[in-house]
Amino acid sequence: MASRVIMAKAMLKGIVKAVPSGDTLVIMEMGDTASTGIPPERTIILSSLMAPKLARRGEKQTTDEPWAWPSREFLRNLCIGKEVKFQVDYTLPQRRLEFGTVFLGDKNVAFYVVAQGWAKLKTVRNLDKDKGEFSPYLKELKKWEDKAKENRAGCWSKDTAGSVRDLSPSLVGDPDREHEIINLVEEYGGREIKAIVEYVKDGSTLHVYLLPDYHHVRVFVAGVKAPSIRNWIVEPLKTEAEDLGRESKHFTEIHVLHREVRIVLEGVDEHGKLIGSVCYLDGQRKDLATQLVENGLARYVDCGLLLPPDAKRSLKSSELEAKKSQLKMWKSYCPPPTDLGAIEDQYFSGEVVEVVSGDCIVVATTDPDTDSVAKRRVYLSSIRCPRSVNGKAKEVLKKHLLKHQVHVSLEYSRKVKEFGSVHFELQSGSAEDFPLAPPAGYQHHMTNIAELMVAHGLYEVIKHRDFEPTSDHYDELFDAEYNAIAAKVGMHSDNDRPYVSNGQAMHSDKKYVVA
Q1: 372 & 470 share domain
Q2: Domain shared by 352 and 264, yes or no
Q3: Which member of 69, 96, 300, 381 lies 3.0 to 4.6 Å from 419 by CB, making a disulfide possible if both were Cys?
Q4: What pTM, to 2 d.p., does this model score?
Q5: Helix count and strand count (H, E) for the chain
């Protein structure tokens, strides 16, 4: 038998980070923090106790021992996130196991567990007693166990119905079961469901049990990507990025590992990954993706239609603030240089006298003092008109804007080009008439031509880099594009649409044209 080492009964303080089973706690020591901000951890098995074992997931899957899940849940609910005191009673060095006593306040945690019948006492031989290989509170534990037996509590119950979870095969890392993940999204997608986080692979990748049916799945946190963690066997060199990966993982662990969270299954991406939004309680409800990005521990990634526009904007805004503050992964970040110019006469009205292209018009303005006419070329801000629909977009602009009065608000100037939003009065009775916010400085209720075109799939919204100027109506443009993609209108249609010239576009499919 492997020899054990008896430890001095030094009392330590820590916070319970994880509860792997009904007799084991992972405790972060207090007062000794590494340079990365990650405190050392100790895995403490409660001395002289033996709880039933949970099912093992993965290639060598097993089933729960009777009462394993309620045993773990009792200890988890009792201790997770709590400050405790603990002492190491003895160790098994060859297996790197530490056995100890843990106190929650002034109460021995082992007493709670045994009294509720969620763990049994190990048989202690005389040889073990001679070596001190048992709990120093063995007599008290024996009394609590006798009471639990008498009350048939927990593991001592004669009625074992429901003591073992009915677990379906794990869906983690099994490409042959991707259809089952899609079925889960169809069943639960779009609404919050309870889950228990069982494992944190990195800051933005979780293995969870979806409750109440215990579906075991891997969830990628929607809208973010945390730094990866190296495989030390394959890539043994430690880097600054590795430290960030460990810190990001630690951040996620201390907030969600072995805790109940709320997850919204947003969908499955093109690689078969299950994407989900994750919220947890930390005094108040918090979004994991937002917290990671705000603290510089993850970057925003676009996941298409799997995330609503307002959630995307929130994450992008949080990332920008983290970059400005040079937090963590952005500590060396420098804003890119710009080629912006000054804007003169930011707001003006006039008549559209020419439509140059699908995203550019010429507006004639009259000086009230001299009656002189000046022409200004205006490019619609924050949008791009693809060549495939440029001709159709140009025809729509001619129909709605040519020889009509418009109100222009210039938003930025680049080199010799001026970019702005153009608002006009949409003719009453038009099916596309919908309320939009008027431009700054005007009291009239107007329609933003760029938003109208985006909504009909004739424009793409430019994904601006950080610190680049954007349209004042950038959020509305994004919402319109999101809806256009979802509705598959215009350029987002499933139909293959070959490139046509401007002349051909005037006589082709009218679906692109805003009536």
Answers
A1: yes
A2: no
A3: 381
A4: 0.78
A5: 12, 26
